[in-house]
Amino acid sequence: MTNNILLQENHSSISEREVEIVHLLSMGYNSKEIGEMLFISEHTVNTHRRNMVRKLNLKNSYQLIVWAFKERILSL
């Protein structure tokens, strides 16, 4: 999908897999559905979500999706 993205403001990066997951979250899929699509467990999806929220100092997945649009990782 996309190479690792360096976030200048947060000095953090999200992986290609994390970009895939945030993209699918923005499309309305839940963790179980995302896991099935990516051939990983629901637990692994939740771990990626939690890690992204923590790395970016956000409070929840909703803020993660908003952040991804602001950073132009996602677009309409």
From TrEMBL:
GO annotation, biological process: regulation of DNA-templated transcription
Keywords: DNA-binding, Transcription, Transcription regulation
HTH luxR-type domain span: 7-72
PROSITE patterns assigned to the protein according to its UniProt record, in alphabetical order: HTH_LUXR_1 (PS00622), HTH_LUXR_2 (PS50043)
InterPro entries: Sig_transdc_resp-reg_C-effctor, Tscrpt_reg_LuxR_C, WH-like_DNA-bd_sf
SMART domains: HTH_LUXR
GO molecular function: DNA binding
PANTHER family, A to Z: DNA-BINDING TRANSCRIPTIONAL ACTIVATOR DEVR_DOSR (PTHR44688:SF16)
Protein name per its UniProtKB record: Response regulator transcription factor
